[in-house]
């Protein structure tokens, strides 16, 4: 199960990294033109960039604390924060009628909840 949790964290970190890079470094006008990026037209550039930075931090927080053995308890905390971020994303996409993205965010939420459950519960990094 430890390997499964590592794989889940790695996959979610890739999702967070790609989303974070695009939101932090791509102008919001370009994001708004992309499929699923229409919500950025209604948001401020600073807000979009902040979400990008949070996603970059999440990518790091899902892997680095455990890999470096420096405060590995931050991994499930990061996963819980990702759950909250995905709830916000689901609400945003739901209000816009983008239900395919709501479903995708629900999958990401489930993966993050699995990581939090596993690392807070039966398979913590410290024992």
Order of helices and strands: HHHHH
SS-based class: mainly alpha
What coarse outline follows from CA principal-axis ratios?
Answer: globular
Number of helices: 5
What would your notes on this structure say?
The chain crosses the membrane at residues 6-26, 47-67, 73-92, 99-120. The mean pLDDT is 95. It is built from five helices and no strands. It has one domain (2-120). The radius of gyration is 15 Å and the shape is globular. α1 (2-25) runs antiparallel to α3 (45-67) and α3 runs antiparallel to α4 (74-95). Helices cover 76% and strands 0% of the residues. By secondary structure, it is mostly helical.
Q: Could you list some keywords that capture this structure?
A:
mainly alpha; membrane; transmembrane helix; transmembrane; 5 helices; 127 residues; 76% helix; DoxX family protein; 0% strand; DoxX; single chain
Q: How do the helices and strands line up, and which of them pair or pack?
A:
Layout: H1 2-25, H2 28-33, H3 45-67, H4 74-95, H5 99-120
Helix pairs in contact: 1-3, 1-5, 3-4, 4-5
Give a short synopsis of this structure.
By secondary structure, this protein is mainly alpha-helical. It is built from five helices and no strands. Helix 1 (2-25) crosses helix 5 and helix 4 packs antiparallel against helix 5 (99-120).
